């Protein structure tokens, strides 16, 4: 397996300290704090470990404090409900004696029922598009050192944007983004693993979409940006090692907060998941 993806699997593999208590390690992806998607994914791994024979169908999470990637994170799971068809879990992430994150998640036994979905947008295939890294290499000499450190990090996922990204962003544009992504290598046939990794990668590219209508770049020195909450719904089976299309829009920004929504489509057109996130987007003078 690709070394980067293998390392991500190791990060997502938690140490079980007690029946409902887990410990996870972090990785530095170039940002000053733990990547929010990592905490989200690890919390879902912890919850999943207590909900045997059921798969997650929704989660709702809040980012409370910055995580320190030099110290382990402890995840405590509350088994709120084990019903006939559904199980409910609440997870609290603790670091240095304080809560940094909490999440509620719901799991369900497999069932059949009514079925409909929205259509996938008609966009170019991923094979016809350049990888995100190629755009970063072209503009690297124009970026500040801190931004280069983040953008030059190798990822366990490959991203191919439909619209060419503009990290400097000097012009306003619609709050809309289409981007293909997939894991860089083949993964095991484990639905729970693919959903946990989808939670991890879903934190990329969301909040940036809320900045596009304002012509503000993620690397602007006047911008203070941070995720506040994150929600996901898993509709159908998914493989993150095959191409997925992330369609993101931002319906609103107000009160120093930006709101974004995402739909994740499999290459065959199935809507496999939806996401929503609100984040702080404060512009200083």
Account of the protein in words:
The chain has 285 residues and is α+β, with helices and mostly antiparallel strands. It has one domain (3-109, 129-283): Acyl-CoA thioesterase, double hotdog domain (Porin, Beta Barrel), CATH 2.40.160. The chain has six helices and twelve strands. The chain has helices spanning 3-12, 36-48, 132-139, 145-151, 191-201, 206-209; strands at 15-18, 21-24, 55-63, 73-82, 86-95, 98-108, 157-161, 176-183, 223-234, 244-254, 257-266, 271-283. It has a twelve-stranded antiparallel beta sheet. β11 (257-266) and β12 form a beta hairpin. α2 (36-48) packs antiparallel against α5 (191-201). The chain starts with a helix and ends with a strand. The mean pLDDT is 94.
Features:
285 residues, alpha+beta, twelve-stranded antiparallel sheet, 6 helices, globular
Give a brief rundown of this model.
The protein has a single domain (3-109, 129-283), classed as Acyl-CoA thioesterase, double hotdog domain (Porin, Beta Barrel), CATH 2.40.160. The protein is 19% helix and 38% strand.
Principal-axes shape call: globular
Q: Helix coverage percent of residues?
A: 10-25%
Low-confidence stretches: none
- The chain-level structural class is alpha+beta
CATH architecture: Beta Barrel
Major sheet, described briefly? 12 strands, antiparallel
Total beta strand runs: 12
């Amino acid at each position: 397996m690709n070394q980067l993806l293998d390392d991500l699997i190791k990060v997502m593999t938690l140490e079980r300290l007690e029946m409902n208590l887990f410990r996870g390690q972090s990785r530095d992806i170039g940002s000053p704090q733990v990547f929010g998607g990592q905490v989200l994914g690890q919390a879902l791994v912890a919850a999943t470990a207590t909900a045997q024979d059921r798969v997650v169908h929704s989660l709702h999470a809040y980012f409370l404090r910055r995580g320190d990637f030099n110290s382990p994170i402890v995840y405590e799971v509350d088994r709120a409900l084990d019903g006939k068809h559904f199980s409910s879990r609440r997870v609290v992430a603790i670091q240095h004696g304080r809560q940094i994150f909490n999440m509620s998640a719901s799991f369900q036994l497999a069932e059949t029922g009514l079925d409909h979905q929205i259509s996938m947008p008609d966009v170019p295939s991923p094979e016809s598009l350049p990888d995100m890294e190629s755009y970063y290499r072209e503009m690297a000499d124009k970026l500040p050192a801190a931004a280069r450190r983040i953008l030059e990090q190798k990822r366990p996922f490959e991203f191919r944007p439909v619209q060419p990204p503009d990290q400097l962003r000097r012009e306003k544009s619609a709050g809309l983004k289409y981007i293909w992504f997939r894991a860089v290598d083949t993964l095991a046939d484990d639905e729970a693993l693919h959903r946990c990794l989808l939670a991890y990668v879903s934190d990329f590219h969301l909040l940036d979409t809320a900045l596009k209508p304002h012509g503000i770049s993620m690397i602007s020195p006047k911008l203070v940006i941070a995720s506040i909450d994150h929600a996901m719904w898993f509709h159908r089976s998914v493989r993150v090692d095959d191409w997925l299309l992330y369609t993101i829009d931002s319906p609103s920004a107000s009160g120093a907060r930006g709101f974004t929504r995402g739909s994740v489509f499999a290459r065959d057109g199935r809507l496999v998941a939806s996401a929503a996130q609100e984040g702080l987007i404060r512009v200083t003078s």
